[in-house]
Amino acid sequence: MINENNQPGETNDLTRRKFIYKTAVGAVAILAIPALGKAGGFIQPETYTVKQIMDKFIAEVGIGNIPNTVDTLKAGSPDTVVTGIVTTMFPTIDVIRKTIDHGANFIIAHEPTFYNHTDNTSWLRDDDVYQYKTDLLKQHNIAIWRNHDYIHSLKPDGVMMGVLKLLEWDQYADKELPNLLTMQSTPLRDLVHEAKVKLNIDTVRYVGDLTETCRRVLFMEGAAGGQRQIEAIMKYKPNALFCGEIQEWETAEYVRDARAKGDNISLIVLGHIASEEPGSEFMLEWVKKNVPGLKVTHITSGNSLKFL
Question: What value does the mean pLDDT of the chain take?
């Protein structure tokens, strides 16, 4: 095609340039438009409230609401729109500060916020430490949910399986009772060394003979309580009980007497935090899978105690 101003072929080139220009401008205009709802052909990033995330996890456990549970909000509002999530063992002041630095406003913790199992604060009202912590949470609009009873109610227990996977002992777990492990015969010293390395523990307390061979191991993370620990030893007859913490006048004394009687049983006390911290990371993976689009970070609270 020829016109007054263009040579043959020029019209096609100009038309093509105009088309490319208009297409580029249109693309920029589309990118400048805020995300529309699904009905408009665009998917708007989904938002979640604190309550929606709590309800989602509780629904997955599948046992309904646990009566008198300690798994309640310790700070913040259930209607808060979540900007980011931090999972942790203990929601310490240091963890709260790091949460603020991460731009998150929802902490999912495994253990209490206020120094007792039920987070009863009536006795702390006039305490400066309590006031500082609560003021910090309020100033930054941070919600804390304790997820203890529900995560332990998963089948299998979410915390326990998190720890066993880190130890690579889950391969030895009994199908019906996952914390009962049947291993290859191994000296107790080697099992203790493996646990210390993989759980990043400097020291453990124990009752027993490190040269004795273990094949049947019972793992009871956290603070199961003396009676439960002793009843489990009585029932399952393990060569070793690895646990989180003890009342020194209960399980340790039972194991000492059992050994004096001639039983091949040892006790290894890992520490409460060391025995459950990797399990609290279970929530990190759960959030990534079930609450897509939200930034989630696991912050290790660490051990409050040091050893000389």
Answer: 88
